């Protein structure tokens, strides 16, 4: 009897990642709400804006988009 074929790797599941738009005021609420801490604030001239600094670490949970008081984050599907 021949050995069974090795299991094929599953395709990467599409995940939604936050798209931070120009409406961001740099309030930092999303940074504090992100469980894996993959968001930070980056300076933009005299202002600050949220930045996803670790795409691979984002779970796509959407908490950042929910807590943003300015509707500045849209979750977009991606294949990473
Ligand atoms: S909560 Fe919204 S406005 Fe505040 S830093 Fe995050 S994206 Fe920007
Ligand atoms: S979707 Fe979740 S894990 Fe990803 S940046 Fe937003 S809060 Fe963090």
Could you characterize what this model shows?
This protein has one domain: Alpha-Beta Plaits. By secondary structure, the chain is of the alpha+beta class. It is built from two helices and four strands; from the N terminus they run E-H-E-E-H-E. The chain has a two-stranded antiparallel ribbon with strand order 1-4. Strands 2-3 form a two-stranded antiparallel ribbon. Bound molecules: iron/sulfur cluster (2 copies). One iron/sulfur cluster binds next to helix 2.
| Large-scale geometry | elongated
- Average predicted local confidence, pLDDT: 92
The total beta strand count reads 4
What molecules are bound to this protein? iron/sulfur cluster
CATH architecture: 2-Layer Sandwich
- Biggest sheet, open or closed, and with what strands and sense? 2 strands, antiparallel
- Please trace the helix and strand order, writing H or E for each element: EHEEHE
Helix content: 10-25%
The CATH class designation is: Alpha Beta
How much of the residues is beta strand, in percent? 25-35%
Spatially, the strands of the biggest sheet line up as 1-4
Count the DSSP helices.
2
Distance between the termini: 40 Å
Q: Compute the CA-based radius of gyration.
A: 17 Å
Number of domains: 1
Runs in which pLDDT lies below 50 for 5 or more consecutive residues are: none
The assigned structural class equals alpha+beta
CATH topology: Alpha-Beta Plaits
């Amino acid at each position: 009897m021949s050995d069974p074929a090795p299991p094929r790797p599953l395709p990467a599941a599409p995940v939604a990642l936050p798209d931070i738009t120009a409406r961001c005021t740099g309030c930092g609420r999303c940074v504090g709400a992100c469980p894996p801490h993959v968001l930070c604030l980056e300076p933009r001239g005299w202002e600050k804006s949220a930045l996803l600094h670790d795409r691979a670490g984002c779970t796509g949970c959407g908490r950042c988009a929910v807590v943003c008081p300015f509707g500045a984050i849209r979750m977009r599907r991606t294949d990473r």
